[in-house]
Design brief:
alpha+beta, Protein Transport Mog1p, Chain A, seven-stranded antiparallel beta sheet, two-stranded antiparallel sheet, 20% helix
Length: 201
C-alpha cells in the first residue's frame, strides 16, 4: 500500500540522523558533514501541514513531526522529526522515525480495507496489535524496511478522510520508540489531526 517513492536524497538525509537513539544530537561531529556550506542556498523549510488532492485533504503531521517539502506531491508525503529536518524548533521530545503517507481516491460505498487485506496485498507479515476506529485501522506488521538502519517491524494505518483513503507507514530504528506501542499512538495522532483539519477547511 505504501511505497518508498520520495526524493531519495531527502530520505537519506533524514535517515542519517536517526542513528542509535531517539535523542538526536544535532551538534555532533557525525551531523557536521550534513550541514551546507555558508554560501549554499538554504534548504526548503519543513512544513507543519500540507494541502493534498487539490486541497481536499489537509495533512497534519503527528506532534513533533514535520513534512519534507521535497517529497510532497498531491498524493504522497514523507515526514520525520522536525529537528532532524533542520527546523529551528520542535520535535526534540518525539520518537525518531520516518513516516510515509499516501492518499488515494475512494470509490463511493467502498469499505475501508482491513489489516489482513493490506498485509496480504503487500506481502507483509501477519497484522498484530490491531486498533480499529470508526474510520481507521492501525496495526503492526513486518516487511522489508526502506533503509538498512530501520527495523522490518513497523506500524501501518488506513483511514477514511472525506472521499479519500489515507495510508501510512511508520518506520523506526530497531528497538526504539517508533516501533514500540508508541508508534500506534503517533499514527493515531496524525489521523485525528488530519481528520479535524480537513473537516474544518
Amino acid at each position: 500500500m505504501i511505497t518508498w517513492t520520495s526524493n531519495p536524497l531527502a530520505a537519506l538525509g533524514i535517515l542519517a540522523v536517526l542513528g542509535a537513539c531517539d535523542a538526536v544530537d544535532t551538534d555532533s561531529p557525525l551531523l557536521a558533514g550534513l550541514k551546507p556550506p555558508q554560501d549554499a542556498a538554504l534548504p526548503p523549510v519543513p512544513l507543519v501541514q500540507a494541502d493534498m488532492m487539490n486541497g481536499k485533504v489537509t495533512l497534519m503531521p503527528p506532534a513533533g513531526y514535520c513534512i519534507d517539502p521535497e517529497s510532497l506531491s498531491q498524493s504522497f508525503a514523507l515526514m520525520a522529526r522536525c529537528d532532524t529536518m533542520g527546523a529551528a524548533t520542535g520535535g526534540s521530545g518525539a520518537a525518531a522515525g520516518v513516516l510515509t503517507v499516501s492518499v488515494s481516491r475512494r470509490a463511493q460505498g467502498t469499505p475501508l480495507p482491513t489489516a489482513q487485506d493490506v498485509t496480504e496485498a503487500a506481502g507483509l507479515g501477519a497484522a498484530q496489535s490491531t486498533r480499529r476506529g470508526e474510520a481507521s485501522v492501525i496495526f503492526k506488521t513486518t516487511g522489508t524496511a526502506p533503509a538498512p538502519d530501520l527495523s522490518p517491524q513497523h506500524w501501518r494505518a488506513l483511514a477514511q478522510v472525506e472521499g479519500f483513503i489515507l495510508g501510512a507507514a511508520l518506520y523506526g530504528p530497531e528497538g526504539l520508540r517508533a516501533v514500540s506501542d508508541e508508534g500506534a499512538d503517533i499514527l493515531e495522532d496524525m489521523i485525528k489531526r488530519t481528520l479535524a483539519k480537513t473537516a474544518a477547511s
